[in-house]
Amino acid sequence: MKRVSVFGATGSIGQNTLDLIARERDAYDVVALTGGGNIGQLAKDAKALQAEVAVTAYPEKLDELRDALAGSGVEAAAGPEAIAEAADRPADWIMSAIVGAAGLVPGLRALRHGTTLALANKESLVTAGPHLMAEAKRHGARILPVDSEHSAVFQGLVGENIEDVERIVITASGGALRDWPLEQLGAATLADACAHPNWDMGQRITIDSASMFNKALELIETREFFDVAPEQIEAVVHPQSLIHALVGFRDGALMAHIGPPDMRHAIGYALHWPDRKHLPVARLDLAQIATLEFRPACEKRWPALRLAREVMHLRGLAGACFNAAKESALDAFIAGQIGFLTMTEVVERTLEQTQAREGLDSATVSLDNILAVDHLSRTRAVEIAAQLA
Ligand code: NDP
Ligand code: MG
Fold first, then answer.
1. pLDDT value, residue 362
2. What is the CA radius of gyration of the chain?
3. What is the 3-state secondary structure (H, E, C) of 2-34?
4. Which of 143, 205, 327, 330 for mutating ligand 1's site (highest number of atoms within 8 Å of CB)?
5. φ, ψ for residue 339 (rounded to 5)?
């Protein structure tokens, strides 16, 4: 029996992970499931999978969770520290699928026990990439990518030598507003940005796809995960979302990973790694698809990509600032305080001011520095968003 925990179990990635676990119920012991506000789903899954413990991020929801779990034998806990403690429970495999930088500390706690971490939470690599990778190395823990592009690259590198890699190309659908005229983008509403053409995902990442902040995070994620130079990493718009990434080698070969837009492939690959097992994803009919299109990922249309280049060059604490400012700007857009294009402006100004005042390109970075910059950048981004509102 493989002991597994799922952090962010009530979300889009979490639910897809539980779907795969439930299909092979006898193969897994479920240790911890964590969620946020969706107590009904959390309790239902914890009972069905007989988890040891269910944890909500919100202390004020503890009574509701306790009531929902009454008589089931599943423990209830609440709060960020309880989530981090759930990562201390012995497990063989942990899915990190909390959304946002809140996923960082539980992920780090799991790595310190040498646990294999399936990482969907890209924000933790953007916020603390070098620290996270160093901790994994120090404790002999493995991180397996779950983001579809990074899973594709990881699979493309099996049996290869990283020194032979010339470039990594990650694809972007272009999101909900891909075909909108540039001059109309400023007027895009929340509903417009939430209508993703290909992938069914959580609300925040869907909006980040429309603004390309998702791809910006993924460029940085690629840099940190595979330790390749920023110049070797490219993004290309691919409206069909069938090719997830390509790895280019020094002999000119370009290996593409193609598959349906279903996260259960990447999740299942990480769950069964290093083996491959049957997965319930659609099989592609290539003749039916007929056409695969590619377009340049224009930095004028999607300035988040230009900011990602700056962050990759600054490194140090720049990723922590970038991600935190992005999360605050996204909150302000969801709350209707700022427009769609103002999100990028908030992030750019937060980066500029923080670089000018505190300096972001420091060579030595501790978790305390990272968390301090995360906090400071959120406060600053909220102020900037209020000024621009
Ligand atoms: P969702 O919004 O669907 O789910 C997020 C999960 O995190 C939920 O379980 C939510 O609980 C929980 N949560 C929210 N806030 C907190 C908090 N402060 N502390 C602890 N838990 C919290 O997100 P997705 O599943 O779409 O994304 C999860 C992660 O995976 C993100 O990092 C995203 O970038 C990444 N990812 C997602 C992909 C996708 O296809 N969805 C693809 C590739 C990467 P509740 O809902 O109960 O409030
Ligand atoms: Mg992705």
1. 86
2. 20
3. EEEEEECCCCHHHHHHHHHHHHCHHHEEEEEEE
4. 205
5. -80, 170
Angle at the Cα of 295 (from 293 to 298), degrees rounded to 5?
A: 160
| CA 93, chain centre distance (Å) | 17
Out of 13, 41, 109, 150, give the residue to mutate to test ligand 1, the one with the largest number of ligand atoms within 8 Å of its CB: 13
Residues 356-372: pLDDT tens digits?
999 999 888 999 999 99
Q: Which ipTM did the prediction report?
A: 0.99
Give the global pTM.
0.98
14 C-beta closer than 6 A to ligand 1: yes
12 close to ligand 1 (CB < 6 Angstrom) = yes
167-223: pLDDT as tens digits:
999 999 999 999 999 999 999 999 999 998 888 899 999 999 999 999 999 999 999
Phi-psi region of 102 (alpha: psi -120 to 50; beta: other; left: phi over 0): alpha
Q: How far apart are CA 105 and CA 108, in angstroms?
A: 5
Burial per residue of 175-210, b for 16 or more beta-carbon CB atoms within 10 angstroms, e otherwise? bbbbebeeeebeebeeebbbebbbbebebbbbbbbb
For the chain, how are helix, strand and coil distributed in percent, rounded to 5?
Answer: 50, 15, 35
Ligand nearest to the Cα of 263, by number: 1
Closest listed residue to residue 203, CA positions, set 42, 335, 84: 335
The Cα angle at residue 300 between residues 298 and 306, in degrees rounded to 5: 80
Euclidean distance between the first and the last CA atom of the chain, given in angstroms as a whole number: 53
E strand or H helix at 190: helix 190-193
Q: 256 - beta bridge partners?
A: 246
CA dist 382 and 107 (Å) reads 26
Decide whether any atom of ligand 1 lies within 6 Å of the 99 Cβ.
yes
Taking a C-beta distance cutoff of 8 angstroms, is the pair 385, 333 a contact? no
